[in-house]
Specification:
single chain; about 290 residues; 7-stranded mixed β-sheet; 6-stranded mixed β-sheet; alpha/beta; globular
C-alpha cells in the first residue's frame, strides 16, 4: 500500500458506557461475547481447542480489553485464525489496527465495506438532526473517518462461507451501512445480527446505560438507507433465529426474540424509521 496504515483520523475515546460494559457472557460453550462500553465483541470457538474467530473489534482503544478477554478465555499468546467484521463503523473497528499489527491474521468484510477499511472513503457524518434521544443528538462527535488496515483486509468469500467457521454463513444485511453483514449458524439457529437490528434503543441514553432489552431497528444516527434496512430485518426475521447476539444490547433468546422481531417487521415504518433526519427519504405510506 502506498499510504501508511493508520487509525481513523478523528479517532478518539467516546464517553459512553452501559451497566454491562467490561463484562462478558458465554451464550454457548463456543460462543462468548464481551461488551466494550456499548458495543459487543464476539469470540467464536471452544476455549479447550484454542481455534477461534473474533467478530468485530469494539470502540476506539479497545485492543487492550480484547487482549485481556483472549488471555482469560483462550490462554496467553492465543490469537484468532481470522477477524470477521459486521461492518466498519468506529464502534466495531476501534481496536482493529492495533490487533492486526500484533497478530498478523486476515480480516474479512463485505466487499462494499472495504473502502472504509483501507482509508479510501469516509462514511457519511452521523446525523445529529435525526429524530431520537440524547445519543443521537451528540452523534456529531462520533468518528466517521476510515481506518486503513491495508492488505490485511479482504472480501468475504462470495459463496457466503465464513473463513475459520465451517458451520457459519454470512448474510448481506445492508441499510445501516452498504456492506453490513450478519452471521448465522443454522444448526442451533444462532444469529450475530451486528447493527441490522439490535436489542436496545441505541439513541436513548437511559436505555443504553441500563441496557433495557427490546428488539429495535438499527441505530438511527448512522443508518443511511432505510429501505434496505427494512429488507434486511425482514430477511433475518425469516430465519426465525433462536438466539441473537446483537452489535448493541444483550443476548435474546426464544419466543421473546421471535415476537420482538415479528413486531419490528410489522411496525418497522413507525417504530424504526425516524420521522425526520438527513438520511430519511422514506414514504411511510408505501
Amino acid at each position: 500500500m502506498d499510504e501508511e496504515l493508520h487509525e481513523s483520523k478523528d479517532n478518539k475515546v467516546i464517553p459512553m458506557t452501559s451497566i454491562t460494559s467490561g463484562s462478558g457472557q458465554e451464550v454457548l460453550n463456543d460462543m462468548y461475547y464481551y461488551t466494550d462500553q456499548i458495543a459487543n465483541i464476539s469470540f467464536i470457538g471452544l476455549p479447550s481447542e484454542g481455534d477461534w474467530v473474533l467478530v468485530d473489534a469494539g470502540l476506539p482503544k479497545a485492543a487492550a480489553e480484547i487482549r485481556s478477554v483472549v488471555v482469560d478465555r483462550f490462554g496467553r499468546d492465543s490469537q484468532p485464525s481470522a477477524v470477521v467484521l459486521t461492518h466498519g463503523h468506529f464502534d466495531h473497528v476501534g481496536g482493529l489496527l492495533e490487533l492486526v499489527e500484533e497478530w498478523d491474521v486476515p480480516v474479512y468484510a463485505h466487499e462494499l465495506e472495504l473502502p472504509y477499511l483501507t482509508g479510501e472513503k469516509s462514511y457519511p457524518k452521523p446525523d445529529s438532526t435525526v429524530e431520537g434521544g440524547f445519543l443521537a443528538k451528540i452523534s456529531g462527535m462520533y468518528p466517521n473517518e476510515p481506518i486503513n488496515i491495508g492488505n490485511a483486509v479482504q472480501a468475504l468469500p462470495q459463496d457466503n462461507s465464513v473463513p475459520g467457521l465451517d458451520d457459519w454463513k454470512w448474510i448481506h444485511t445492508p441499510g445501516h451501512s452498504p456492506g453490513h453483514v450478519s452471521f448465522y449458524r443454522e444448526k442451533d439457529s444462532l444469529l450475530l445480527s451486528g447493527d441490522a437490528f439490535i436489542t436496545v434503543r441505541q439513541d436513548s441514553f437511559y436505555n443504553v446505560l441500563m441496557q433495557t432489552v427490546e428488539v429495535n431497528g438499527p441505530p438511527r444516527y448512522l443508518t443511511t438507507d432505510w429501505h434496505a434496512a427494512k429488507e434486511s430485518v425482514e430477511k433475518l426475521e425469516a430465519l426465525q433465529p433462536e438466539i441473537v447476539v446483537p452489535g448493541h444490547g444483550s443476548v435474546m433468546k426464544g419466543e421473546k426474540l421471535k415476537e420482538g422481531l415479528k413486531k419490528l417487521v410489522q411496525t418497522f415504518d413507525q417504530s424504526a424509521v425516524p420521522d425526520y433526519g438527513r438520511f430519511v427519504d422514506y414514504d411511510k405510506k408505501h
